[in-house]
Amino acid sequence: MKTNLIALVALSIASYPALLADVAEGAPFEAPTDLAEQLLGEKKARLADPAPSQKTVKSVKARVLATCDLGVVNDVVELPADLAKQAERDGLVDTDKAAVTYAGSLEQNQPKPKART
Length: 117
Prior knowledge:
- The structure is a single chain.
- The chain is α+β, with helices and mostly antiparallel strands.
- The protein has two domains: 2-47; 59-109.
- Helix content is 23%, strand content 23%.
- The chain contains three helices and six strands; from the N terminus they run E-E-H-E-E-E-H-E-H.
- The relative contact order is 0.14.
């Protein structure tokens, strides 16, 4: 397994044969796990920043107005904001707070009682 690192000093293949090439100070590189642990311990490298996480998608609650792939009439569904906006333009859902609250009060949107075992 390899570890992504950033060199804090110039690293030479002569000093670290497991490297595939010399590494300049500040350059990102991959190293085998055992070498990575050694370089981290010697403070000659630091872990590279992890890949940026995907942006959180805003979700919107909506009342389904027409039976479709999103649900049946009066279901309350949670959709990504862009999908909710398009579905509302298409007349499939209503994202108005009052509409969602009303649909949420209907029996079909109430939690189902758990069966006793």
